[in-house]
Specification:
8-stranded antiparallel beta sheet; 6 helices; elongated; 8 strands; about 210 residues
């Protein structure tokens, strides 16, 4: 991914925090020279120094059939917003732009086959995304749970490279974008508000 140096973020904690907040990623693989992509929620964990991303696909989704041992790319990118050039300190010397965060995780896919490991991965996903449902899942019949598990394919991706682009106007002086930040942080539009908060955090107040 093209990343100018002022937008590059190598801080692992920042990137993991972002993925946990916006866990819907795009899993991209290739088959016969053509890209295949699906939108899936991912659970993020650390195993020692390794970042692990877990998800599952419906067994009716053909992408899983070629995943075992295959290199993949997972893209996380959620809040984004056009930056209104009329809000800059000197709007005559600025043009509109688009701010966003994009995190590209490269890794290798592994299909989980062991029953106990599948069960643990599913519990982890429930605890992350719908903890109130955990007791209900536990109380469901073994037969029903088995039918549900047989309908999915559980995937683990061990990440070997992260490319993170936090395009938040860091190439501007804080004084230039202070009015933009003030307007966006208080915006009723969720994307603008999220981008405003990120800009305030990541642009040095010089």
């Amino acid at each position: 991914m093209y990343i100018p140096h002022y937008f590059k973020n190598n801080n692992l904690s920042d990137n993991i925090e972002f993925i946990k907040k916006f866990p819907l990623g795009i899993l991209i693989t290739a088959k016969d020279g053509l890209p295949i992509a699906n939108h899936l929620p991912f659970v993020t964990t650390m195993q020692g120094k390794d970042l692990i991303l877990d998800t599952h696909l419906s067994k009716t989704n053909d992408q899983w059939q070629d995943l075992s041992g295959q290199d993949c790319l997972i893209i996380f990118s959620e809040p984004n917003s056009m930056i209104d050039a009329t809000l800059y300190e000197n709007s005559k010397e600025h043009v509109p732009t688009w701010n966003y965060v994009a995190i590209h995780c490269y890794g290798v896919c592994r299909i989980i086959k062991e029953e106990i490991e599948i069960e643990n991965k599913l519990k982890e996903m429930v605890n992350n995304f719908n903890p109130a449902f955990a007791k209900e899942w536990q109380n469901m019949s073994d037969g029903y749970k088995q039918i549900m598990k047989e309908g999915i394919v559980t995937i683990e991706v061990k990440v070997n490279e992260i490319q993170a682009k936090w395009k938040l106007s860091q190439n501007k002086q804080y004084a230039e974008v202070e009015n933009v930040i003030s307007k966006y942080v208080n915006s009723k539009e969720l994307n603008k508000m999220e981008i405003g908060i990120m800009m305030e955090k990541h642009i040095p107040k010089k």
